[in-house]
Amino acid sequence: MHSEQIRGILDWLSDGARSEPDPAMKMKLTCEQLVAAGIPLHRVGVFVETLHPDIYGHRFIWRADGEVEVGSTTQDVEMSEEYKRSPLKILYDYGVEVRFRLDDPESKNFPFLDDLRAEAVTDYTALPLRFLDGTYHAASFATKQPGGFTDSQLSALRAMMPPLSRLVEVISLRDIATNLLDTYVGNRAGARILAGQIRRGHADHLRAAIWLSDLRGFSALSDGLPPEIMVKVLNAYFDCQVAAIASHGGEVLKFMGDGLLAVFPIADDGADAAEVCGRMLAAANECRASIAALSFVEGSYAIESFRFGVALHVGQVLYGNIGGGNRLDFTCIGPAVNLAARLERLAARLGRTVVASSDFVGLCSEGWSDLGEFPMAGFSHAERVHGLTDEMPLAVEGL
């Protein structure tokens, strides 16, 4: 084993492995350098827990004959038999190094090691990655070398843990920040915040197709259901919209009780405006179908049908930081958003699920019926409103 090369690897990791920005490539280069320095690695894994509503953690697996495999585990992984019978559970439970020679009878207690044994692996060790907040994550190493790892090879791997822990922690914290921002403010806003657009009043003009929707009869529902059941109802209802909006290129900016505000950004030159509006209409039709098919049952509480309304508009918005004191909201405002809100309320009065402005219909003209002109509160002129031709109006609310 070449001690000078090992020291070079440690220095490279301590400096953030800056020659390669991609985390998976950092791992690939680290493993290849360790092999070149005389540590005969067959498989290396890095396992990091994260803060995400759906994902428990990320895994990076390198093999000597291939690229790095990147994957994720869901929040229920700790309940799985695979995890409960994994060497990593010992590491996570006690924060200790775990090592098994695969000719040791005790190794047969772990099904995962049976898989490695089938690959002719002779030795396996998992070392804790200690983060500054006291949490433990893991790096595992396997070799096919006869007799397993030597003492000097294990010492080199152990020496690598402090700089590797700091590097993985920095990458993990940025990943967590990105995930949380994406979860709470959306991808576009999250990217801007990470880029440093955090000053109050920092805003850009954005041309966008605007989506504003709400759940019909929300007040009556919330009055008749326990709060914890109402939260589940809203989550099921929003699930029908968020996936459709995201899959068609939109971004959810805000949930407001039962309301949802989303934008579909349009290029500065407007060249893709018709295509963007077409995608938003496709998302609206997808939501219309999924919400019509939605029902909710839990215990003695049952909702057999849901109704919602959505207004589609297109216009210029101001997109950025708005708020007071040290509490800011990254959102969009402007007359176009206000008009979308007026249209959404009008949809309820007209018994319509989907309504659109003339500006929107001018870019996406197929399948609309002219519903007439209506005065809009706060606007000096009436707005011509359009409804889908394949939709019959439902019961009118307070017209």
Structure description:
There is one protein chain. With 399 residues, the protein is an alpha+beta fold. The protein has two domains: 3-185, 2-Layer Sandwich (Beta-Lactamase); 188-388, Nucleotide cyclase, GGDEF domain (Alpha-Beta Plaits), CATH 3.30.70.1230. Helices cover 40% and strands 30% of the residues. The chain has helices at residues 3-14, 23-36, 81-84, 87-94, 111-118, 151-185, 187-194, 218-224, 227-247, 273-292, 335-350, 358-363, and strands at residues 41-49, 55-63, 68-74, 98-101, 123-130, 136-143, 203-215, 251-256, 259-265, 296-298, 301-303, 308-324, 327-333, 354-357, 368-374, 383-388. The termini are far apart.
Topology:
Blueprint: H1 3-14, H2 23-36, E1 41-49, E2 55-63, E3 68-74, H3 81-84, H4 87-94, E4 98-101, H5 111-118, E5 123-130, E6 136-143, H6 151-185, H7 187-194, E7 203-215, H8 218-224, H9 227-247, E8 251-256, E9 259-265, H10 273-292, E10 296-298, E11 301-303, E12 308-324, E13 327-333, H11 335-350, E14 354-357, H12 358-363, E15 368-374, E16 383-388
Parallel strand pairs: 12-14
Antiparallel strand pairs: 1-2, 1-6, 2-3, 4-5, 5-6, 7-9, 7-12, 8-9, 10-11, 12-13, 14-16, 15-16
